[in-house]
Amino acid sequence: MRTNTSVLMAVFIIAGACTSGDSAAENEVAEAGTIANQSASAAESTSASRQEADLEFLRMMSNHHEGLTQWSELAMRRGTTESVRADAHELHTKQMMERDSMVAMIRRDFGQEHTPAIMPQNRAQLDTLSARPTAAFDTTYYRMVIDHHNAGIRMINNFLPRMQRPQVRQMAEHMKSEQQREVAELQRKLSAG
């Protein structure tokens, strides 16, 4: 429980201190992951604290997914091409399914309820995206998704060594693979555009 409290306090402090910008999401998650690693290292000697890494990951990643879900809802309406709207729909659907699977795991495997909440920095980025002029919207959305996925990949890498449950590890590894593929695809689209 001590690790979980330390991590939550660190996330709230980091979230309050973040500034807006295209790479802020990756900074937020990287710092939270570093603090989570430090907190977990201090308590790793007990089996209970090692099991908490799985729960901690599911909570943080489901909150992380909530941000992209909301960005993608906006992009489904405001994307200037059918391709961008279709990409946003696909990302929205995948992120919602993964988020809901993580929430179900938390309930089933840990006996806890969790309602994903958009991280404050992701909320600020949603506001930034909402204010983008139409001509810059698609490019901004794709760049934000790339930054968001890269931050998620770093979070997964930070948690993987501490994960104990095979099902959580398998989910994390699948997410990492999919996000790497999507980053490469979106980078190609930005280069071509």
Largest sheet: none
- CATH uppermost class: Mainly Alpha
Total domain units:
1
Count of separate DSSP helical elements: 7
Q: Give the CATH H-level superfamily.
A: Ferritin, core subunit, four-helix bundle
Radius of gyration: 17 Å
Unreliable stretches (pLDDT < 50, length at least 5) are: 1-48
- Number of DSSP E strands: 0
Strand content of the residues, in percent? Answer: under 5%
Looking at the structure, the CATH topology is Ferritin
Indicate the mean pLDDT.
Answer: 82
Shape category: globular
Q: What are the secondary-structure elements, in order, as H or E?
A: HHHHHHH
- Helix and strand content put the structural class at mainly alpha
Regarding quaternary structure, what we see is single chain
The CATH architecture would be Up-down Bundle
Task: Tell me what the structure shows.
- The chain has one domain (2-192): Ferritin, CATH 1.20.1260.10.
- The protein is built from seven helices and no strands.
- The protein has helices spanning 2-17, 24-43, 47-78, 82-110, 120-131, 134-159, 166-192.
- Helix 2 (24-43) packs parallel to helix 6 (134-159), helix 3 runs antiparallel to helix 4 and helix 3 packs parallel to helix 5.
- The longest helix is centred in the first third of the chain and has 32 residues, at 47-78.
- The radius of gyration is 17 Å and the shape is globular.
- It starts with a helix and ends with a helix.
- Residues 1-48 have low confidence and may be disordered.
